[in-house]
Amino acid sequence: MSEAEETPDSHDMGKLIRWHEGLAAESGQGFPVCALFLTSGEDTRAHDIFRVFRSAFEALNAGFHDLVIFGQHGMSTTCAALIPGLGLSGLDTPSLVLINDDADLVFYSIRLPAGSLAEGQTEEDGAGVPWRVALTEIERSAKDRVIASLELVEGLESMEISGESLAEAVGRVKLEVEAA
Can you point out the beta strands (E) in the chain? Predict the structure, then answer.
């Protein structure tokens, strides 16, 4: 299947496989956080925020598995399966989920603006917006080679899961999607 013929489902499934492989191959102290964007094809504002993260993560030499986006080319079964599969039930798209995978797995989530900007409208993304504050903390922690202190970012919802790593959780979701 050519890239032009690729569906949102096949695109996101390929991305899920690559994400899982990257997480499973990671050894030692890697990048301080994994950023997961869950969107739909119409969420151009969320896609723009993803691009800001991608530029910052590239400048910090993050790997592919440190920043992923699902649903960018349209809602997919993979994107839909990640929400309950990672224990994020109730999370609406578009959302950003920042993941610390230290002793326990901790998810920090924030709902992103949906849709696109109307003509003449400007994005409200000043310094105090939670995703911007989180990105600043991620940049600082990557440069200092320490765990990101995302619990201090106002506006992020946190949830801790113990018992499995991010690679294990993503692998479990991958198996569920492949079986469907």
Answer: 34-38, 67-70, 95-101, 105-111, 157-161
